[in-house]
Amino acid sequence: MFKSRKRTSYSQPPERASLSYRIFRFLHLTLLGILRAGLPVKNYLQLNLSLLYWVLIAPFTGQFFEIAPVFRQMVSIGVRAAPMVALTAFSVGVTLAMQAAHSLQSLGAEMYIPDLVMVTLLRELGPVLIAVIVIGRSGSAVAAELGTMKVSEEIEALEVMAINPVQYLVVPRFLAMLVMLPTLTIFGNYIGIFGGWAVCRFALDFNTAGYVMRALESSDAWDLYSGMIKSAVFAWIIITIACNSGLNVEGGAEGVGQATTGSVVQALLAMLVMNAVLTGIFFFSA
Amino acid sequence: MSTNGEVIIEVTDLVHTFGDRAVLNDISFNVHRGETLVIMGGSGCGKSTLLRHLVGSMKPTSGSVKIFSEDITTMKEREIERVRLRFGMLFQSGALLASLTVGENVALPLSQHTDKSPDEIEQIVKQKLEMVGLTGFEDLKPAEISGGMKKRVGLARALALDPELLFSDEPTSGLDPIMTAVVDHLTLNLARGRGMTAVVVSHDMTSAFRIATRMIMLGHGNIVAQGTPDEIRASPNPEVQQFIKGEADGPIPLNLSQEEHKDHQLVRPRPFWAARFRFHHKHS
Hints:
The complex is a heterodimer of chains A (about 290) and B (about 280).
Chain A: H1 19-57, H2 68-77, H3 82-107, H4 113-151, H5 154-160, H6 165-202, H7 208-218, H8 221-247, H9 252-285
Chain B: E1 7-18, E2 21-32, E3 36-40, H1 47-54, E4 62-67, E5 70-71, H2 77-84, E6 87-90, H3 102-113, H4 118-131, H5 147-158, E7 165-169, H6 177-194, E8 197-201, H7 205-211, E9 214-219, E10 222-227, H8 229-233, H9 238-245, H10 258-264
Parallel strand pairs in B: 3-8, 3-9, 6-7, 7-8
Antiparallel strand pairs in B: 1-2, 1-4, 4-5, 9-10
């Protein structure tokens, strides 16, 4: 093991590090790597705990969060995303109806097109696609904003002024997202169903009343609720990942860029995995 | 004058190391009520790091910092907040919140920590902005004003709660000579009139000698010299003389040799077990 001890002369340095040194170095660096990879997870859990404290416990100790910033964030996170959500949802509704028509016409089952549009949108595509839009638009904006505040010492200034950054910055964004993502999802569902209606009404032989009747008959309230549950969970994931990335930025403007990209990728992955998990839960428990 | 009065800040054996390099190496000093302490020293000598320890946003490797006789190095974040309400801090860049207007920035500590009505807050904001010569700038965003103005808004914000203790990180860098004098007189008036204690990090020597009742010079993480402005002026230490006269040539090296550079650089600590091995890189 201690190969270097067999060397008779130490006047010349050995050409390579000894094998034992390299093994130890490998283990040491691997361990450090694992610890370093664990740090962001620790930060993320800490942020979540702190958030829960400020939302659920602090109001009962007299430190109620302010309402006005929540509404301000609801406008910038949610209301301003509505046009994009509408366009996306309309395209998806139209596409779904056309694809369904293509397949179902060959079976002579065109009457089931509204069923398909409705159930797919409410349960699956509505929550997921609108979460994707909100991640790309609002999640990245939050990460970039908080990251810029971090690198320009604003977060430190808040702390020195005895203002908790989680209470002051994260709580309003969290509550706004928790309200606005499900709201946007409901809004997007309507628009998507409207898109499906447009195809059925103008390209196929449906009348409006028939489409509405069929759509309402095909789905029940649980379809909507399961979508809403998904949506609320996605909201939590999106906003905590965005805020965590923003608050832990290091290294100037470049760091802000990396954190923003990172937050989008992480949020997308986490959201899609969580979607599969939730669908699994609903599928096997129903 | 500097020895009577209660001790406001008590720094004992403060050490902070980044890797192998000690940025602060065993620093101890006291600040008494009503004093204006100027901390000076070359760039990268640890002034800003020292200031961050004094406000509790960095934790030392060892040693203690007591503010109002409370040890902030061992406190929890919640307890430090209580201490922080009693002092104000001016950041080097101003650190204004970019999303708020100038007026809202100054009002922030008031609206967060007091029960004052919006009208009262508006009055106080106007008064504080007038003190720093920025009447009528309430509705502008920080992006619309110059760097010197941001710094003065930062000062107004630091003074919003009428603190007993003020920390300033280079309050006069980037200001024109007249505004430097305005800010200096403001600090002096607050110190003399209201008995405010101030800790100012600066390398503007004119301003430093104008406001200081006591000075500390840092170098290589140690206190090189301390005393009243007159003692500092008369200091026999060649490093101090070079610094206050602003000479390029002297004991403070302008150009570091390669070896000195290596010493100054952050060195990743060798893992503890590596000491047992003879290890040479191919290219070293």
